[in-house]
Automatic annotation (TrEMBL):
<feature type="compositionally biased region" description="Low complexity">
    <location>
        <begin position="394"/>
        <end position="418"/>
    </location>
</feature>
<feature type="region of interest" description="Disordered">
    <location>
        <begin position="1"/>
        <end position="30"/>
    </location>
</feature>
<dbReference type="Pfam" id="PF13830">
    <property type="entry name" value="DUF4192"/>
</dbReference>
<feature type="region of interest" description="Disordered">
    <location>
        <begin position="394"/>
        <end position="516"/>
    </location>
</feature>
<protein>
    <recommendedName>
        <fullName>DUF4192 domain-containing protein</fullName>
    </recommendedName>
</protein>
<feature type="compositionally biased region" description="Polar residues">
    <location>
        <begin position="1"/>
        <end position="17"/>
    </location>
</feature>
<feature type="compositionally biased region" description="Low complexity">
    <location>
        <begin position="473"/>
        <end position="504"/>
    </location>
</feature>
<dbReference type="InterPro" id="IPR025447">
    <property type="entry name" value="DUF4192"/>
</dbReference>
<feature type="compositionally biased region" description="Basic and acidic residues">
    <location>
        <begin position="427"/>
        <end position="437"/>
    </location>
</feature>
């Protein structure tokens, strides 16, 4: 245990960015020594790259020349039901130890954190007492794996408490105040190294969640209107190829538009600017066009160089436009956002975007495979090589870009206006951004592609009235077509490249974010 009346010994932080620690010393390596619980509490945002909320975190420590070196980190959201705490602690400990053994060697020690803000009528001290059992379960599970927890901290309401101090009266009952952000030695070292700590995961997810403003209704009308023209064409072999070319050409124009837009300061103003540069009909065309997986794979080739940044902004903007019953359509742009983020080295946003894609559609294989690869710390270069090879020889269409970026506009409704339910709201993502069960009665099925015969099917939302000619139907002459039902009423699913198996990340409701 840690004796709080003395120093804990130096802990060398070569890994404040959250990436895998370097295997050997370098000439210009930055080393920061942490000796006290206060410094360990202050280090957590720099170890994760963001400020955790409602989280249980384990950080691995490795012996290195008589010092403790930070290794992998793993985080889970704190289960709302205390009966699930033991299973969550076991999953977190085993996941981190297993990942560390694979990448960095088995850790010798652990540091544990529980972070949660007080609820109504609670104080930080109340949170510390309530989560004491969870912290003890984390220590027990790590001990069962022969990896002792040398420090366990609770962080709440701007203060921290230790669960490991053996000295009576050493730690104040009301906790110790956290230092001002950016004033510690570790903060100075991170700033010098060019490392920035983001806000919270909630703020990151807000950039990817569907609109909940009055503009959402206009976007939903645009999706309905464009879909009545686009989806029937996607069900035809010839029309499908034309839609794919039009989708890629439109995405290229928007990416160039974003690349030349005037920069703004702050994530929210930047997202508002991107939304204003994308018209409702353009967003609807791209969202529906990307439901074709071959088209999506072509769009995934914008993953590096000068194209990556504007492409990521576009996929975020499209995810925000998957409003109302189109929530399941967000799986495609969210997966593309996660892929580009991972390809450019942002594992944090990659994991969150991919987890949100799986929440939108747990069966989305591309998201499942990328999520597993990102969590296991694989090199994205293997995927990049495949996409580069597919891009060789393809000549993208280069239609003329409009002179002035179009503002968001609502398309005029067709002669038979879809019946819109007043008061409908977009689907909300799970706060932990983890795979969850789909709500089939609340989402419209996407049009899926069949790589063998080029046909697609789209299933309209049952509880929503649509014009009679707006619901694409698959011909029933071929019983093997996508979306058909056999004699027993079993629905067959269209095949796509890489969909032969169901491997990938299991849709565990508490998928750990293990870096190491």
């Amino acid at each position: 245990m840690t004796n709080h009346s003395e120093t804990t010994g130096p802990f060398e932080s070569n890994d404040i960015s959250g990436q895998e620690p370097p295997t050997g010393p370098t000439e210009h390596a930055t080393q920061v020594t942490l000796r006290t619980p206060a410094e360990l509490a202050d280090a957590l945002p720099y170890l994760l790259g963001y400020r955790p909320e409602d989280s249980m975190v384990l950080v691995a420590l490795h012996d290195h020349a008589g010092r403790g070196r930070f290794g992998g980190r793993a985080r889970l959201g704190i289960p709302a039901n205390a009966e699930d705490w033991e299973a969550a602690a076991r999953q977190l400990a085993r996941g981190l130890v297993t990942g560390s053994e694979r990448r960095d060697g088995r850790p010798e020690r652990m540091v544990a954190y529980v972070c949660q803000e007080p609820g109504p009528g609670e104080s930080g001290r109340d949170v510390k007492r309530r989560l004491e059992r969870l912290a003890q379960l984390m220590r027990t599970e790590c001990g069962n794996l022969d990896v002792p927890v040398i420090e366990a901290l609770c962080i709440s309401d701007g203060r921290f408490w230790s669960y490991c101090c053996p000295v009576e009266g050493c730690c104040p009952e009301d906790g110790s105040p956290m230092g001002l952000p950016g004033t510690s030695v570790l903060a100075a070292a991170a700033t010098y190294a060019g490392i920035q700590v983001r806000g919270t995961l909630r703020e990151l997810r807000a950039r990817l969640q569907p609109w909940e403003t009055s503009a959402a209704l206009e976007q939903e009308i645009a999706l309905d209107t464009v879909g009545m023209n686009l989806v029937p064409r996607m069900l035809d072999a010839t029309g499908r190829l034309e839609v794919a070319e039009e989708t890629i050409a439109l995405a290229e124009r928007i990416i160039r538009r974003y690349a030349t837009a005037a920069p703004v300061t702050g994530t929210h103003p930047a997202d508002v600017r991107d939304d204003d540069l994308l018209a409702d009909d353009e967003a609807a065309t791209l969202i529906l066009g990307l439901q074709d997986r071959t088209t999506r794979d072509k769009a995934a080739a914008w993953m590096e160089g000068d194209e990556a940044g504007p492409a990521l902004r576009l996929w975020r903007a499209l995810a925000r436009r998957c409003v109302g019953p189109y929530g399941e359509h967000a799986a495609a742009p969210l997966t593309l956002a996660g892929w580009v983020a991972w390809s450019t080295g942002d594992e944090l946003e990659a994991r969150e975007a991919l987890a949100m894609a799986l929440a939108a559609d747990p069966d989305y294989l591309f998201a499942r495979l990328l999520h597993q690869a990102c969590n296991e710390g694989l090199d994205p270069e293997a995927v990049r090589r495949c996409l580069r090879a597919e891009r060789v020889g393809r000549t993208p269409a280069q239609p003329a870009e409009r002179a002035t970026p179009a503002p968001r506009t609502a398309l005029a409704p067709p002669q038979q206006t879809p019946s819109l339910r007043p008061g409908s709201h977009p689907q909300k993502s799970d706060q932990r951004a983890e795979p969850g069960p789909r709500k089939g009665g609340q989402r419209r099925r996407r049009a899926r592609s069949d790589e063998e015969d080029g046909r697609h099917t789209a299933r309209a939302k049952r509880d929503r009235r649509r014009p009679a000619d707006s619901r694409p139907r698959t011909p029933m002459t071929d019983p093997t077509g996508p979306g058909t039902r056999g004699p027993a009423g079993t629905r067959t699913r269209a095949a796509a490249p890489g969909d032969a198996t169901r491997g990938g990340v299991p849709s565990d409701s508490r998928q750990s974010e293990a870096d190491g």
